[in-house]
Amino acid sequence: IGHPEIFPLVLTTKTQEIFNCRVDEDVTEENCFKTIKKEDIIQDLETRAHISDFYPVRKVVLEYPGEELLVVFDAKFQYGQNFYIVASEEAKENLVKPPETAEEEKEEDTEEILDPFKPLVPKPWVSLGSEKEVEEESVKDNVTKIKFKISRVRRNFGAPIAFTDKNASHGTDGYVECTSYEDKTFSIKMLEKDVGLQIVPKVRVASTQTKWTYPKNAATQYCPRQLSEEEKAESLSSEKLKEFLTSVHLRVEIALQQNEIMNAFFDDWKALADDKSSSDGKPDVYLKAHQSFTNQQYLKDRTISCVCWHPTISGIIAVSAREQLSYEEQIKLSKKSLLHQSVILLWSFSDPIHPQLILESCEDIYCFQFSPSDPNIIAAGCINGQVVLWDISQHGEKLQNEKPVPEEVVNSDSEATTAAEVATKVSPGVVPSPMQVQQSSTEPPLVKYCAVSSREYSHKKTVTDIQWLPSNFKVSLKIHFSSFYWNNIIQLFCSSILFWDIPATEHQEKPLSRVSDTSKHLDLSWKPLIKISLHERDANTEYGPIRIILRELHYRYKTSGKAKSVSAVKAPAKESPYTEMSSSSSKNLEVLENISTNFFVGNEDGVIVYSDWKMKIDTNSAKPTQKYSLHTETINTLQRSPFFRDTFLSIGGHNLAIWKEGVTNGPILQSSCSAGRYTAGQWSLERPGVFFIGRDDGNIDIWDLLKKTHEPSHFQNISKSVITFISAGTASPKQHFLAVSDNLGVLHVLEICQTLSHPSSNE
């Protein structure tokens, strides 16, 4: 343990007495060595055998080369026991006589051998020529020294001395400053420099590989594997096939609706010429620029908010403008008055420079609509929430350019529409020519509004949509629908839905004067008839509708006496078009039961709500029956198809959807998210499967559902700014227009091509 030639050993008191190595008597800490003969230890091993204390080291004892073994008393238990035995003669000598004593003995021997000290004698110096170099490098003073003698005046010797304080900077003789400066004499320039360079050869690694050509088949012939008739019958009647068809039926149907299945039998070669241009170099689908309207006085730095075509006079289009504000900014500024003049401009195709009529408003207009039964009445909703009415019957001759209407072109299907057309003397489909423009004055007349709603009872926010109810019913306070002749109810909404009535001053059967005279009592005191708020089912949070769709219904009504003929309704040109109109008595009104009052609305959060406007007995708010959260941004378009009464289009944010009444699990068609935002939309008036979408990059997407249902079939750039509104109009059976407005205050009138205006068979 710790030394290869030292083995610890335990010697009992009996063994110590036998070998005369008793502790503190024969051996001590200072005299710890004890030599024991090898023969005595072997004799003890033979006598005591296993009991002997030397039995653990018997092999060491037997192999020991000497006659005597050294046993050392380990008083400090350095090796773990009270004694240890040394197994070699060399180790024995080192322990008994340490190496230090041996070295001292050697030193003593060497000292005796050395010679006695002899003093050193210096040797004479021998010159080798170095003194000459020392003399050359030594500095010698060759300049003659100047001697100075400094003495003091004799009279100052022994004179008393007086010490005073003095600033060193004040005196000129007692202070000298030696400033440091750069001495160019001692500037060192580097004239030579050792630089090590090493040339390294260019190394390029190149490799080559043998090209092994792989074998190719020169020709391959396939032979189909066909099942036998028995195998076919067994496969068709198997339960596994029925379960598979049942499990994938719903997924395949959805994929077919979304146009996600590729036609494996589609002939690409035949379809190469589908999207090519026609023979005249123009594409088959395009929107041709017809005219553009703008005005530096009223439309400069403003955005067009709404566009409407005149219902009966072809070539007349009306636009309204507002400040270029976002929807959030409109809400913040809805209660503030603006300094500029807010108007509605009526343009004619015959004079694209000067407006034909200017309707003055109290505030910026967000939306407006012509009355369907009386086009001379215009209702508008303002940004501050007020409702405004105009009567343009006095300017009907200017708009129609004094051109009479042939009797055979009058449509006899609707009595109210016929009366309006005859009163204004307009022939549908006839565009006024430039020769018919009045030459007497180029300044358009300014028409002031005839009625405006009260600010206290108006909308609290911007009026975002306006709808005229059908002309054959009237809404009472109990929400009963009755037959009525005149279109006298306007429905508008912003954060809630309000019904506005335009009643006569006296409910009696006598001829009425102009609407402006009838509506004088409404100015600044006009109040809504009914207010409807949409709330959550379990909360008081309002939905905040932005767009609305009323369900088209066929209403039956009866009036006293026989119906008037078309010729009897006609009035002279110079008389008022309303001289034959009279308010029906309430006694002749029949309450219509089982009338559907359902409607669709879209709110600012992109939610589509299907609800009922009929009041409940215990509350004055409508509860939504169905809610769809599809769009991520504000609904900007909610429009019913002109061909299908139960189908409508919704646009908001980056996607669009087509809905169908009665389908409660969502839209029947939904587009994927586009890169840009959709800002406006319009159904085609000629083709059921075509609609137009305006984007924020100034492009118009043309969707043709007969060609593609997952993406627009064509697109065309119209403006450099955001498209704000789209409206479709018809001038003649062969001429169809699309009015597109942008954020720069420019109205673009585009002519729709023949491909988009002529429907295919059974479309």
UniProtKB/TrEMBL annotation:
Question: Which GO MF terms are attached to this record?
Answer: dynein heavy chain binding; dynein light chain binding
This protein's GO cellular component annotations are: inner dynein arm
- InterPro entries from the UniProt entry: Dynein_IC (IPR050687), WD40/YVTN_repeat-like_dom_sf (IPR015943), WD40_repeat_dom_sf (IPR036322), WD40_rpt (IPR001680)
Q: Which UniProt keywords apply?
A: Cytoplasm, Repeat, WD repeat
Task: Answer yes or no on keyword Acyltransferase.
Answer: no
**Subcellular locations according to the entry:** Cytoplasm
Single Gene Ontology BP term? inner dynein arm assembly
Q: What protein name does the entry list?
A: WDR63 protein
